[in-house]
Specification:
This protein is of the alpha/beta class and 328 residues long. The protein folds into three domains: 156 residues, Rossmann fold (3-Layer(aba) Sandwich), CATH 3.40.50; 41 residues, Helicase, Ruva Protein, domain 3 (Orthogonal Bundle); 116 residues. Helices cover 53% and strands 8% of the residues. It has 15 helices and five strands. A five-stranded parallel beta sheet has the order 2-3-4-1-5, sandwiched between helices. Helix 4 runs parallel beside helix 5, helix 8 packs across helix 9 and helix 11 packs across helix 15. The protein is elongated and about 70 Å long. It starts with 8 loop residues before the first helix and ends in a 6-residue tail after the last helix.
Length: 328
């Protein structure tokens, strides 16, 4: 049974309570809030032969087959390799599944995740099935970035925003999910995960707090000229590039915000507050805006999986960062 998250309760009541189901749903929202689990829960209920008012029964033939991963009327479409595109051939296989008759005599349910990873040819190949799925077929598309979906895909689905939990609800859930972390550590993880509790658990598993401590220490040494950009770029080899660009992007925003507001409450996590304040006082605003533009452009290349020379890219970032203070 897919996990049920407390922040999804009212949305679930709404979805489970529908007498008639749409032929396609687009469940969207930030990564790390449980959209996949919600889609799997709905999939189980739609396929169940004896669903209760709340959930799939978990015991009928259909539920048992789904649990075993061998339900003939269920299809899951995802990238063949993590972070790669869903290809047109994969969608063609799906389309041939859509036109078949349901073997169990009920619905066919398809889950596509993440929907935005379909390349343009794959997305176009899906359009006809989205428009007129044969028989009683329900497609569940899960998306973390709807801006990357074709408008024609979005317009053929019932779009359903999935809720981001409140900080209090996230922290209560994280207290059970990460009992060995202190409250302060859980707050830090949730902040680093932009408020997504499942992403916070993943970050903890990746050792993100240790990685961040290494980077923060390196940035301080860089500004004191105790370490060179080259040494740091090589020393950060194990840290995901996107994570590094996310942090530097965040820090440049915090510097700008402090330059404009002088608000000490808005300096972000405690580990970098003094550095942010120092750079805000020493760096010209045009310099900060320029580096932020550059970071955003490079971050986009990282997201689109451009073929980048990691060490050279980090060196270029750190040379600019070290040049931010105009007065030593």
């Amino acid at each position: 049974m897919a996990e049920a998250y407390p922040w999804q309760d009212s949305l679930w009541q709404q979805l489970a309570g529908r007498k008639q189901h749409a032929h396609a749903y687009l469940l969207h929202g930030p990564a790390g809030i449980g959209k996949r689990a919600l889609a799997e829960r709905l999939m189980a209920r739609l396929l169940c032969q004896r669903p209760s008012a709340q959930d799939a029964c978990g015991e009928c033939k259909s539920c048992l087959l789904l649990k075993a991963g061998s339900h003939p009327d269920n299809y899951i479409l995802e990238p063949e390799e993590a972070d790669k595109a869903i290809k047109v051939d994969q969608v063609r296989d799906l389309v041939s599944f859509v036109v078949q008759t349901a073997q169990m005599g009920g619905r066919k349910v398809i889950l596509i995740e993440p929907a935005e990873s379909m390349n343009i040819n794959a997305a176009n190949a899906l359009l006809k099935s989205l428009e007129e799925p044969s028989g009683d077929t329900v497609l569940l598309l899960v998306s973390h970035q709807t801006s990357r979906l074709l408008p024609t895909i979005k317009s053929r689905c019932v779009q359903q925003a999935c809720p981001l939990p409140s900080e209090a609800m996230s922290l209560a859930w994280l207290a059970k999910a990460l009992p060995d972390c202190s409250e302060e550590e859980r707050i830090e993880l949730l902040t680093l995960a932009a408020g997504s509790p499942l992403a916070a658990v993943n970050l903890q598993a990746q050792g993100v707090r240790e990685q961040r401590a290494l980077v923060v220490d390196g940035v301080k040494k860089l500004l004191k000229q105790q370490q060179s950009p080259t040494q740091l770029a090589e020393g950060w080899n194990a840290i995901p590039l996107l994570l590094l660009f996310d942090w530097f992007c965040d820090w440049s925003s915090l510097i700008l915000r402090y330059q404009l507001t002088q608000d000490e409450e808005g300096l972000g996590l405690t580990d970098m507050r003094k550095v942010i304040q120092y750079l805000a006082q020493k760096a010209g605003q045009d310099k900060v805006l320029n580096i932020q533009d550059w970071i955003l452009a490079q971050r986009q290349k990282v997201i689109s999986k451009a073929n980048l020379n990691r060490v050279l890219l980090l060196e270029a970032l750190l040379v600019q960062w070290a040049g931010l203070p105009t007065q030593r």
